Amino acid sequence: REPYLGNPQATIAVLNKYGFTFQKKFGQNFLIDPHVLDKIIRAAEITEDDFVLEIGPGMGTMTQYLAYAAREVYAVEIDKSLIPILEDTLSDYDNVTVINEDILKVDIAKLAEEKNGGRPIKVVANLPYYITTPIIMGLFESHVPVESITVMVQKEVADRMQVGPGTKDYGALSLAVQYYAKPYIVANVPPNCFMPRPKVGSAVIRLTRHAETPVQVDDEKLLFQIIRASFNQRRKTLANGLKNYEGLSFEKETIEAAIAECGFSPSVRGEALSLEEFAKLANVLGRAK
Ligand code: SAM
Fold first, then answer.
1. What gap in Å lies between CA 212 and CA 97, rounded to an integer?
2. Which residues are annotated as a binding site for S-adenosyl-L-methionine?
3. Distance of CA 47 to CAs 5, 69, 95, 107, Å?
4. Hey, which of 126, 127, 132, 195 would you mutate to test ligand 1's pocket, going by the most ligand atoms within 8 Å of its Cβ?
């Protein structure tokens, strides 16, 4: 059956039928715009071969679109009052499994193994903004087999994921995302596409996982510690940032020598360095350990 949710009338009808009240603590803003939904499905390149994990299905609006396009959909919703609603709105789709769980507690690697023979899965979500970063970084860092993540996030967060050095939005999130994936902003989505309307603008971003990371480092953990240290105190020079960071214990001289060996200015700031340059520094410092 073709999706029928995703417009204001159908959404209101379901809300009224179940007397559902939105919960702020779960970041509930439901999509009510079919054009945006179409765009997300197209950007995610869902085909009938795909196993899709949806995080936070809400009342099942995007789930209907996903179920219509994919082989199988697995939707994880934390709010138990939405479960009977989902049973109703998804009753015409026999390729959807809904579970009532916190996504941060789901073993996604196991899921991919059981449901998709260990092949990379696609993740699609209109994420509650407060857990965007832990979810995305968790998926990447745990090396779960994921082919792409197509998500609705706060516009500002989408910008941060996508930019390079020399812009104010550039930071640890940009580098972490770009180490693992190629970001592409699919669409900006204004507040009136949701019910209730969020206070901020949103954007759909697609993160396509690199087959191979664009830089090679001997120690991934060290790379990310260095990145975090450099942006921890933005106004400080890179050398000072690295010296003052708790997680790192390099001597001042070692840090200065490594910066010089990389060919960076002694007064360089972390925000000026590209991913390649951070990788170079991580490899030089790693050898000094
Ligand atoms: N996908 C729906 C849509 O587009 O209309 C709903 C999107 S709404 C922004 C986010 C959804 O994620 C809500 O249904 C909320 O209850 C759910 N959610 C929030 N935190 C969650 C978590 N930790 N695990 C799973 N679902 C969560």
1. 32
2. 29, 31, 56, 77, 102, 126
3. 20, 6, 13, 24
4. 126
Cβ of 204 closer than 6 Å to ligand 1, yes or no, is: no
Numbers of helices and strands, H then E, in the chain: 12, 9
Read off the pTM.
0.93
- Provide the pairing of β-strand 51-55 with 121-126: parallel
Closest by Cα among 52, 53, 58, 105 to 79: 58
Rounded to the nearest 10 degrees, how much is the dihedral formed by the CA atoms of 53, 58, 61, 67?
30
User: What's residue 52's pLDDT?
Assistant: 98
Rounded distance between C-alpha atoms, residue 24 and residue 41, angstroms = 26
Residue 253 tokens, joined: 């001289």
Q: Find out whether the beta carbon of 79 lies less than 6 Å from any atom of ligand 1.
A: yes
Task: Tell me if 277 CB under 6 Å of ligand 1.
Answer: no
60 lines ligand 1 (CB under 6 A): no
Give pLDDT tens digits for 26-57. Answer: 999 999 999 999 999 999 999 999 999 999 99
Polymer length of the chain: 289
pLDDT digits (tens, 9 = 90+) for 121-146: 999 999 888 888 889 988 888 888 99
Residue pair 36/63 in contact (Cβ under 8 Å)? The answer is: no
CB atoms within 10 A of CB 120: 14
Q: Token match 């991913």: residue?
A: 275
